[in-house]
Design brief:
The complex is a heterodimer. By secondary structure, chain A is mainly alpha-helical. Helix content of chain A is about 75%, strand content about 0%. The chains are: A mainly alpha, B mainly alpha.
Chain lengths: ~475, ~650
């Protein structure tokens, strides 16, 4: 039954093949493509859901299927499905490229799914590149005036340099330990992390994921890509892709758990700078997506805070928050892409009067934004609470204080969005009507954000079991 | 676990059904009157059934407690849960029953109102809050429900919010009760800090076992009583309740007479052993409640608005209950007298309000002189019911009020200082007088001219201006003509009949209830002197009312008009509203607000602005790092990584 362990990946491989065939057709059938994509991704969510409790090793133990990987695969499948739900109107992408859009989204999902299961350095690298290349293509796919190309190139270059760092780091680790299997590396790292080669190797090896998560100083791509990419693509980058990066960061950071003070202090610095820089610069942004890009940089800092504790509590917090972040960030992006139905870049000021134009969207916006800001009783609050508590218990008092101060700063720009949506009205802006599925999606997201914020127990239990698998 | 335990399931249903009804109506069905009504009625009927089942099944058993951790910190654990003991079961039944009856009654009363759905949503919210309050196991949970009840009250008083006076009254009720709640909360904080638990059962047994320092009992007891003063409208925080009559009349019946305002007294019974442990607290309560009794009874003498009369009567009866509890505590008696009066009062006062509601609905005015001259007595059933209720209120045998008043007076008689008893009797006399003033005017109307001398009453020609329009909407909607005297729908009559039968029966349930509440019924040594005095006071009050208002050639001015100064004093409601206005202007706005605003503007805002500007400024500065030059970005990455690497090397 080994093949069943590879089930989700196989399913998405098949899905990619379907889309590949669809790209070959002469005449474009946009509606049909969309329906196929949506249906297949919904089935994909089901498949990954069914495979949630699988366990086992594949491919000479380079590939591990455990609860940890399956949870993230489920999150990725969910992310893909959610992104496709808001792709019903792909105004920003030329019709003849829309099948490609679905194709590359699927391949990048496969890449990420393989990434979260990889426990061998080369597999990790290959999977990472598979997911990245698809995104490199997706970003400039937007119909536009060159800003997309600029973003695409920036993304590619920074990604390539980060990969370079990462490979360099991996080669150090391999050189020092003589193995590419994490299982073998782990015991040897305990002495190695206190030598220059080990610590530099590990730090550089994390670079690839820092890039994905847009941790300072690998964050330069985020604002431009967020602004330049099509709304749906950016949604995927901002949700599913982050979850995958967090997963791998969790797997690799374990290698540094014996390092003591030095390694973690480096991560503390990156975390603090990411949070502070992201939040401060987000304040002055006028473009909604650009603001969200800086917000994601700040959130990368929060994730890092949980990761660097390398404790079970911290890992639980990070896993919970990664799942929560996927939902809440998606909620905000969903509002964004519904308001900007023609695929334009949305200015924050264009949200004016949203409470009147679409009460439901404005409710989702308020919930999403409050969740991102960490206002109780949303999932965002619970996640932040878990992470902050774990960091506090691990002894990073000042890090938590800085995190809390940043939590206040971030309210400033988050509330600016809500201010625009609720307190400014522009009678010139049109009313937005939502289709029934979209309305249901709105209610479902609201229910998740509030419901799991109130009763996080089930998810925390799941995260606990998953954290055990990697620690 | 939930489903295997029917009691827990019942408690949960009681709380969550009204909650979901509120949510469903507010979010989905607000514009659909029929559906909203159905949802709300279902969510009121099931708790009703649960309440009565519990009452009969669990009545004699030991308290049942469920606790679930809600907030756990090092020193304090705050559970949420349910406490079902006789004290809560009786109130549970009262609340569920009256709330159900009022919902039924409102079908007729509120028919055609544009806010019908919202009305039922608010009623459901109230049911949620009130039922939670009654069966909660901890004081913090009770406090949360207490505040939610306040919210529901605010929403319902200001239900016709487009009317300025209604929204003002809602605001007043909210703010004034909040005044008391500050005290309540501080009391809880004291308890948590110096005792460490807010569990009702624990606090009570600690007070009984003397394991709590006396100063703490007194301090937090007095502070918690502040909350009681606000919610149960005790002097000097009673000013909100008469204004609260701006809400629809069924709401007045449910919230502002029978259940919500009784929550204060209920709280006193809930932690009665705790309160009773401090004689100081109880003396203060006795003084305040007595003052309240006298004050509000005298104001009721001069009121011309039927709901105002009953509102002040409610205030006075609440005072009476508190007197009973305080007196019992001081003479080491039991909570039964006060609680029993709460029970009977809930029945007959709700009846009074609902009957008045029928008249108001019918005649479109609140002025009972106008109702009388327009033929109010032709509505036979409501007239009979209101008379029964008034007899109960006045304390006439064999109606419920007689028995409970008797008990409270007995408790007062046990005190060494007989002054309290005299004042209690005087209050009973006034109560009989003002309630029968209304009844006699309604039963034996004189010509409209005869009432022209009544201060405050304005002849009904100007009704439109005077009649508060308290029922303006519904009245326009169905346009009841004055000749159409059979138009009272059965949904409005049915609750009257139920409550009237309660008023008749409850008096004879004394032994049963006492056994239920205290575990044993004590045979009462009849104090014949007291019996004669009480009935004498009530009868003389009625007789005086007959002389002033009832008999054929009555002067229709009231004995109080012999003392013009006093009359003005009462009509001006002891100048309490003036006092609060002056107090607010002089102290709150003049001193606190002024200086706090100054501090806020200059110091706090200035500081915040400075921080904000510097934050935004640093954001601007930092955003320069983000340049369009890719090579700089890459360089920056390398430099930072190199820096971190060097730091790691050096730091070792």
């Amino acid at each position: 039954m080994d093949i069943m362990l590879f089930g989700p990946e196989l399913f998405y491989l098949g899905m990619a093949l379907v889309f590949f065939c669809l790209t070959l057709r002469r005449q474009v059938q946009v509606r049909l493509d969309y329906q196929i994509a949506l249906a297949l991704s919904a089935v994909g969510v089901l498949v990954t859901g069914l495979c949630l409790f699988q366990q086992g090793d594949l491919f000479f133990k380079a590939y591990r299927v455990d609860l940890f990987s399956q949870i993230f695969k489920f999150a990725l499948a969910l992310g893909l499905f959610l992104v496709l739900t808001i792709s019903h109107n792909l105004a920003a992408i030329e019709e003849r490229y829309q099948a490609e859009f679905y194709f590359f989204l699927t391949t990048t999902t496969i890449g990420m799914m393989m990434l979260v299961s990889s426990v061998e350095l080369l597999t990790i690298y290959v999977a990472l590149e598979l997911s990245s290349y698809s995104l490199y293509i997706l970003v400039p796919l937007r119909r536009g005036d060159g800003i997309d190309v600029e973003a695409g190139i920036k993304y590619l270059f920074i990604g390539a340099v980060s990969s370079g760092f990462m490979l360099f780091g991996l080669s150090y680790i391999f050189g020092a330990t003589g193995s590419t299997y994490l299982v073998d590396i782990l015991p040897k790292m305990n002495q190695l992390v206190n030598s220059p080669i080990g610590i530099i190797g590990l730090l550089l090896a994390l670079a690839g994921f820092f890039f994905k998560l847009s941790v300072f100083p690998f964050h330069f791509w985020a604002p431009d890509v967020y602004q330049g990419g099509a709304n749906q693509v950016v949604t995927f980058i901002a949700t599913a892709s982050k979850a995958a990066a967090v997963a791998l960061l969790l797997r690799l950071a374990v290698l540094g758990h014996a390092s003591g003070y030095n390694f973690t202090i480096a991560l503390v610095i990156l975390s603090v700078v990411s949070m502070t820089l992201g939040n401060l610069v987000a304040i002055v942004q006028k473009d909604f997506k650009r603001m969200l890009a800086y917000s994601s940089i700040a959130h990368a800092g929060v994730f890092l805070m949980g990761v660097l504790t390398i404790t079970e509590a911290g890992y639980i917090g990070v896993i919970y928050y990664a799942l929560a972040y996927l939902v809440m960030n998606f909620t905000v992006f969903m509002v964004l892409s519904e308001v900007a139905a023609d695929g334009r870049d949305l200015q924050i000021s264009e949200l004016a009067g949203l409470y009147r134009r679409s009460p439901l969207l404005s409710m989702s916006l308020i919930l999403g934004i409050f969740a991102l800001a960490g206002v109780p009783p949303s999932i965002g609050f619970t996640g932040k609470l878990l992470i902050f508590t774990s960091a506090m218990n691990a002894g990073y008092f000042w890090l938590v204080v800085i995190g809390a101060v940043n939590g206040t700063i971030c309210l400033y720009y988050y509330l600016k969005v809500l201010y625009a949506a609720y307190f400014i009205d522009d009678p010139g802006l049109p009313v937005i009507t939502l289709s029934l599925p979209m309305r249901l999606l709105n209610y479902a997201l609201a229910a998740i954000i509030i419901g799991f914020g109130f009763c996080p127990d089930r998810i925390v239990e799941l995260a606990k079991a998953a954290a055990k698998a990697v620690l | 676990m939930v489903f295997s335990d029917p009691i827990l399931l019942g408690c949960l249903l009681t709380v969550f059904l009204p909650l979901s009804a509120f949510a469903l109506i507010m979010i989905f069905t607000r514009d659909n009157p029929k559906l909203s009504l159905a949802i709300s009625l279902v969510a009121a009927t099931i708790p009703l059934i649960i309440a009565w089942t519990f009452f009969f099944k669990l009545g004699g058993r030991a308290p049942i407690i469920y606790n679930f951790d809600w907030m756990v910190s090092d020193l304090v654990k705050v559970p949420f849960g349910f406490l079902l003991d006789p004290t809560s079961l009786v109130m549970f039944v009262i609340v569920a029953t009256i709330s159900w009856l009022v919902q039924v009654y409102s079908i007729g009363y509120m028919a055609g109102d544009p806010g019908f759905g919202r009305y039922y949503a608010d009623l459901s919210l109230f049911a949620l809050a009130m039922l939670t309050l009654v069966i909660s196991s901890g004081l913090l949970q009770l406090y949360i429900a207490w505040e939610l009840v306040g919210l529901a009250s605010y929403l319902l008083i200001g239900f016709w919010y487009e009317k300025f006076s209604a929204s003002e009254a809602g605001k007043k009720a909210f703010v004034v009760t909040r005044f008391g709640d500050i005290g309540f909360f501080m009391g809880l904080v004291f308890l948590v800090i110096f005792y460490g638990s807010l569990d009702i059962a624990t606090v009570n047994s600690a007070a009984v076992a003397n394991s709590m320092p006396p100063w703490l009992i007194t301090t937090s007891g007095l502070l918690i009583f502040c909350g009681v003063m606000g919610k149960s409208a005790q002097f000097p925080l009673h000013v909100w309740l008469p204004d609260a009559m701006e809400g629809p009349t069924p709401v007045s019946a449910l919230l502002h007479s029978a259940t919500m305002v009784a929550a204060g007294v209920f709280l006193m019974t809930r932690i009665f052993p705790f309160f009773a442990a401090s004689a100081t607290t109880m003396t203060v309560i006795l003084a305040i409640s007595t003052l309240t009794l006298i004050l509000s009874s005298t104001i009721a003498l001069a009121a011309t608005d039927i709901k105002q009369v009953w509102a002040y009567s409610t205030v006075s009866q609440l005072g009476f209950m508190a007197m009973g509890l305080a007196a019992a505590a001081l003479a080491s008696g039991t909570l039964f007298a006060g609680y029993y009066h709460l029970t009977t009062h809930a029945a007959f006062k709700a009846l009074l309000f609902l009957c008045s509601g029928v008249f108001i609905h019918h005649f479109g005015t609140n002025d009972f002189f106008t109702m009388a001259t327009q033929g109010g007595r032709k509505l036979v059933i409501p007239m009979a019911c209101i008379t029964i209720a008034a007899l109960a209120l006045a304390g006439i045998f064999p109606f419920a009020g007689f028995f409970s008043k008797e008990l409270i007076l007995t408790a007062l008689a046990h005190l060494d200082n007989k002054l309290w008893l005299v004042l209690g009797l005087f209050g009973a006399f006034l109560t009989a007088y003002y309630s029968f003033r209304v009844i006699f005017v309604m039963l034996f109307p004189k010509s409209p001219e005869a009432y022209s001398k009544v201060p405050g009453h304005i002849a009904h020609v100007e009704d439109e201006a005077h009649g508060h329009g308290a029922h303006g909407h519904a009245d326009d909607a169905h346009g009841h003509g004055h000749d159409e005297h059979h138009g009272v729908p059965w949904v409005m009559i049915f609750p009257l009949l139920v409550l009237a039968s309660f008023t008749l029966i409850l008096g004879f349930c004394q032994d049963y209830l006492e056994k239920l509440l205290l575990g044993a019924s004590h045979p009462h040594a009849m104090n014949y002197f007291l019996l004669v005095a009480a009935v004498g006071c009530a009868l003389s009050g009625i007789a005086l009312a007959w002389l002033d208002w009832g008999r054929k050639d009555a002067k229709c001015v009231g004995f109080i008009s012999r003392f013009p100064a006093l009359q003005t004093f009462f009509i001006q409601k002891w100048y309490m509203d003036h006092f609060w206005r002056w107090f607010l202007n002089r102290f709150i706005y003049g001193i606190f607000s002024k200086w706090f605003t100054y501090n806020d503007r200059r110091v706090v805002d200035g500081g915040v602005d400075a921080v904000a500007f510097s934050t935004v400024g640093s954001g601007r500065l930092l955003s320069f790092i983000q340049t369009a030059f890719l090579q700089y970005n890459l360089l920056f990455m390398v430099v930072v990584l190199a820096g971190v690497g060097i730091y790691l090397m050096m730091g070792r």
